[in-house]
Design brief:
By secondary structure, the protein is of the alpha/beta class. The chain is 35% helix and 17% strand. The protein has helices at 26-40, 54-61, 77-91, 101-110; strands at 14-19, 44-49, 65-67, 95-98, 117-120. It has a 5-stranded parallel sheet, sandwiched between helices. Helix 1 packs parallel to helix 2 (54-61) and helix 3 packs across helix 4 (101-110). The chain is globular and about 50 Å long. The termini are far apart.
Length: 136
């Protein structure tokens, strides 16, 4: 279409999804579906999840490239940073999608600021409650 805002040629973007959710909730479902749809339209997508965690298993079942070398625990944070640096060096992502704060902290510590854009996505926005536990 002449005069269209959309380019004629599709751009292939390299996207890395990091998800450490230990059960398959709406946030994990959103991350896996987003990665699958991005791969379906022609982007290079890799899904990083914990070994044996449901989001990583679901991403692998959908045919996405997965890596389960990260541990996502506070004790092994520096080891995960070094592993993510290696993965970023090999995969060279343009964007890193992070659904929660721990993944964003990991991506920020592992990537140079000019290398990849870190995108924070959130699927399960919870309304504030009056319970004492969430305020602790």
């Amino acid at each position: 279409m002449q005069g269209s805002w959309f380019p004629d040629k599709r751009v292939c973007v390299r996207i890395l999804h990091i998800d450490s959710i230990r059960f398959f909730n709406v946030g994990a479902w959103y991350a896996v579906n987003l990665a699958a749809h991005q791969a379906a339209v022609g982007h290079d997508v890799m899904f990083l999840g914990g070994d044996g965690l449901p989001p990583a298993r679901e991403a692998a079942a959908r045919g996405l490239a997965t890596d389960t070398s990260l541990n996502f625990t506070a004790r092994k944070f520096m080891r995960d940073v070094l592993s993510l640096r290696r993965i970023c060096r090999e995969f060279e992502p343009d964007y890193i999608f992070c659904p929660r704060g721990i993944e964003q902290s990991l991506a920020t510590a592992a990537t140079p600021p000019t290398r990849a854009h870190i995108v924070r996505v959130r699927a399960d926005i919870l309304a504030p409650t009056s319970a004492r536990l969430p305020r602790v």
